[in-house]
Design a protein that fits this description.
Length: about 200
């Protein structure tokens, strides 16, 4: 396993390395609630659009394009809230989560069926649900909702499994790092949420 990881690291292109580095920077800056996380994330996703297109992965390229759009939105929103002194963590209502998950699973079922029928996808449903859930979780980050980190913990856990099962040890290790960062992110944002609740 270590040999496979080292082989994949040596085979990593400079563009892929920059994308990974800026992707990690995005996660770490997001934990600190720095608006510059969106710049790092936008750079990472912009590179991944190109890399995904080169690898003939149109769904991943589309997902990364969504991330670039969200990077602009997230930077604008976090900058606005910082200027208004309202840059605090909030929570989403339970009803909103239930509706979001019903929609997420419905979309996942449709896209998984299409993938199973039209492609040779190894894990159509898990691939679909992590993609749709990632769209939701990214929006929750932009809205500075505490629960985004719980979504990312679940998503990253599944992605570690998926990429490891497909023999992509380096990518699986990257998502394992994201999983740890997400746990710290939840803890950090939870403290901010509690402090804000006490102050109000």
């Amino acid at each position: 396993m270590l040999d496979t990881l080292m082989t994949q690291i040596r085979a990593t292109s400079p563009l892929e390395a920059v994308s990974v580095a800026t992707g990690l920077a995005y996660s770490l800056l997001a934990v600190k609630r720095s608006r510059w996380c969106w710049v790092a994330g936008g750079v990472s996703s912009s590179i991944l659009i190109y890399l995904s297109a080169q690898a003939r992965l149109p769904m991943q390229a589309t997902l990364q394009a969504y991330y670039v759009v969200m990077a602009f939105y997230g930077f604008w929103r976090w900058s606005k809230e910082r200027d208004e002194k309202s840059n605090v963590v909030t929570m989403w209502p339970t009803r909103a989560h239930l509706i979001a998950w019903i929609v997420t699973f419905a979309l996942s079922a449709v896209s998984a069926h299409w993938l199973a029928q039209e492609t040779q996808a190894a894990w159509p449903f898990l691939d679909s649900v992590t993609t749709w859930a990632s769209l939701l979780a990214t929006w929750l980050v932009a809205r500075m909702k505490l629960e985004n980190w719980l979504y990312w913990i679940a998503i990253d856990f599944v992605l570690v499994f998926l990429f490891a099962k497909q023999g992509m040890v380096f990518v699986a290790s990257l998502f394992a790092a994201y999983l740890v960062i997400s746990a710290f992110g939840f803890r950090s944002w939870l403290e901010n949420y509690r402090q804000s609740a006490l102050a109000s």
